[in-house]
Amino acid sequence: MRPYTILNAAMTLDGKIATKNGSSKISNKKDTERVHKLRKKFDGIMVGINTVLIDDPKLTAHKLPEKDKPIGDMKKINPIRIVVDSNGRTPLDSNVLNSDSETIIATSNKILEEPGTLSSLREKADVFICGEEYVDLKRLMEYLYNKGIKTLLLEGGSTLNFSMFKEKLIDEANVCIGPMIVGGSQSKTLVDGEGFEFMENSVQLKIKNSYFLDECLVLEYFVKN
Question: What pTM did the predictor assign?
């Protein structure tokens, strides 16, 4: 068993989620509120280590509209944060380890070579070790499900997105398309990784919904696993 997983991302019309310098401001205020409302509904939210290193996100629902914010402790609505970090590179001063929510660091056996790092991370997070050199995503999904995370929001980055698609661990994909073109062969796309060699091997989608948020277009798809 594994969590029901939805990939959520913002990209430019040419499929970029960030420039080569890491700039990633694409969507508008309405989409930001949409994302934080979505976070509120999920048990867990997952990103790769590069997202943490580049963006230092909180991965909480702190930008909810005022009318949707709870009275009292925000921790009650924040999802559990999961960082896929094969080498244990999550900075100890990062937001995912120091703001209002529980955090799970998923890492590989390579961290056993750095006992000091492992000990420091365990002081701030639940560390789950699975896989030899890279995190075993299928084992991670089973672990998360058994911890009570039945729904999972995946927010990238591009390499993790591909790995999750390749392992058939994504059920839906929601993409906000910003009205801009970035270009650049070194700019990050929605899905990178090694890619599929043939179109017939690609991930097939079925449209679920579409709507505008001012000039941004949101597309929602089911994944045909």
Answer: 0.95
